[in-house]
Amino acid sequence: MNNISNQLINCPVFVYHHIKPEDEYMMFSTTAKKLDRDIQTLLMKGYKSVSLKTIFESIQGKNELPEKSFCITFDDGYECNYHLGYPILKKYNVYGDIFISTDSVGAKTHPSIPDFIPHFSWEQALVMQNSGLIKIHSHGHCHEPNNEMPSDLFDENVRTSLALIQNHLGSTDIKAYAYPYSEFNAQTNEKLNDLGFGLLMIACWKNSKEFLKQGCIGRIEADFDIDIMDMVEAFKCLSKKSFEK
Ligand SMILES: [Zn+2]
């Protein structure tokens, strides 16, 4: 496989959020059992786990992605990622990239959100990162739509999150950013590119030329009720069409 569009067509990136211990389903969540089955299925079908770093390096032409590969990401930094997700990744020796909103690291409750989902701590983040399988990246400081923020506030929000991650976990070798609610525009992309971010993650069931030009990578929302191989096929088909345009 040589050109980058072919490589990206064959490398679906999944985004998970909350992981539940039992079969009790809700939006933006999966279960530990389903995550385990997703990964097991991909590996059995010959897909190789790659990290975002590997994807970034292949975009830069420094390496090539395997013929069939996949990348697992998680958003928001929920504590269940540490207790339920991380052990599954370790079991299969699979990479994971986690995007955190730094103002809620370690938060267990919220004064105005009764069903607030607890978030992992900096110590737990460090344990995961030290395993060599997990990388922690920025999802902004506060979890708000970035396209509605005045540009100075957006700038401060990104810089604060980056500084906190670097202080607690050390500097990162790639700068990746996930947009909260996938809300972005040309100005936010430009600002992040100026700040040195090479990968901007959005939720979208395809990769495309237009996205790639601005450093954006589409991610599949890995819903609890869709078969992982159906997601892979849909992603490949949509990406292929959009790269052919
Ligand atoms: Zn989020």
Please give a structural write-up:
This protein has 245 residues and is of the alpha/beta class. The chain has one domain: Glycoside hydrolase/deacetylase (TIM Barrel, Alpha-Beta Barrel). The chain has helices at residues 4-9, 32-44, 52-59, 79-92, 122-130, 151-169, 186-194, 209-213, 228-244; strands spanning 13-16, 18-20, 29-31, 48-49, 69-76, 96-100, 134-138, 176-178, 199-203, 216-221. Strands 1, 4, 5, 6, 7, 8, 9 and 10 form an eight-stranded parallel beta sheet that branches. Strands 2-3 form a two-stranded parallel ribbon. The longest helix is centred in the middle third of the chain and has 19 residues, at 151-169. It is globular, with a radius of gyration of 17 Å. The chain starts with a helix and ends with a helix. Bound molecules: zinc ion (ZN). Zinc ion (ZN) is lined by residues 75-76, 139, 143, 180.
Give the CATH class. Alpha Beta
CATH topology term: TIM Barrel
Q: What's the helix count? A: 9
Bound molecules: zinc ion
Report the principal-axis shape: globular
CATH-defined superfamily = Glycoside hydrolase/deacetylase
Quick check: average pLDDT?
Answer: 93
* Proportion of residues in helical segments: 40-55%
pLDDT < 50 runs, ≥5 residues: none
CATH architecture descriptor name? Alpha-Beta Barrel
Task: Give the topology, please.
Elements: H1 4-9, E1 13-16, E2 18-20, E3 29-31, H2 32-44, E4 48-49, H3 52-59, E5 69-76, H4 79-92, E6 96-100, H5 122-130, E7 134-138, H6 151-169, E8 176-178, H7 186-194, E9 199-203, H8 209-213, E10 216-221, H9 228-244
Parallel strand pairs: 1-5, 1-10, 2-3, 4-5, 5-6, 6-7, 8-9, 9-10
Helix pairs in contact: 2-4, 6-7
Bound molecules: zinc ion (ZN).
